[in-house]
Design a protein that fits this description.
single chain, alpha+beta, Jelly Rolls, six-stranded mixed β-sheet, three-stranded antiparallel β-sheet, 4 helices, binds fe (ii) ion
Length: about 210
């Protein structure tokens, strides 16, 4: 009996290339600086944009779940190197800011697949001596559109802001969300707290 052979997808090619980088470049700092073009190739593949129409909205289209946690779609987690390809799909009427945060020790590439958003970056301006307190100031405000990739290194403080448009993003992380303690920041009050990071919702990228 003939065995069905599944055709190679854009995700298969992406994963193979990322795995090659892990095998060839042991220094994470150097490796993560080289991965942007690989992410851009995935974002530019028309099959991915088409497939995204079938993905569920994260948080049912709202900013958060009742328990206060945000969601990420989970498309792939590598069994050997631990990296994960995640995503978010936000509705047009979701006019919220995700909240200012860092990703703990995780390296991240945030790549926009569809729609437009604003990326904001911040830096810490206190000495870290006061518990549960962090003073920050904004350093960057950047409009991003399809194909743009933001490289977020460990502990870098940032947020993505919706601008009244539906938006879909793919997020490559050195470890899946939830594996490292993240932090949330409040620029007005200086409140600084540990958080678990997004909850993961497994999705078949090319499923119906
Ligand atoms: Fe983030």
């Amino acid at each position: 009996m003939a065995r069905e052979v599944k055709p190679e997808t854009a995700l298969d090619r992406f994963v193979a290339t990322i795995r090659d980088w892990y095998a060839e470049e042991p220094d994470p700092e150097k490796r993560w600086e080289c991965l942007t073009p690989v992410m851009q190739e995935l974002l530019a593949d028309p099959s991915v944009l088409e497939a995204s129409k079938n993905w569920p909205l994260t948080n049912g289209g709202g900013p958060r779940n009742p328990d206060g946690r945000v969601e990420n779609l989970l498309f792939y987690q590598d069994p050997d190197y631990g990296f994960a390809l995640q995503g978010v799909k936000k509705a047009a009427d979701r006019s919220d800011r995700r909240g200012i945060h860092d990703h703990g020790r995780i390296y991240t590439l945030y790549g926009l697949l569809d729609g437009h958003e604003k990326v904001e970056r911040f830096e810490r301006i206190d000495d870290g001596s006061k518990e549960d307190y962090a003073a920050i100031r904004q350093t960057v405000e950047m409009a991003v559109g399809p194909g743009d990739v933001d490289v977020v290194k460990p502990y870098e403080i940032h947020t993505e802001v919706t601008v009244g448009e539906a938006a879909v993003a793919l997020i490559l992380r050195s470890e899946p969300s939830g594996s490292s303690t993240q932090h949330r920041y409040n620029m007005e009050t200086g409140e600084y707290q540990a958080s678990q990071g997004p909850r993961l919702v497994p999705v078949d990228m090319f499923g119906k």
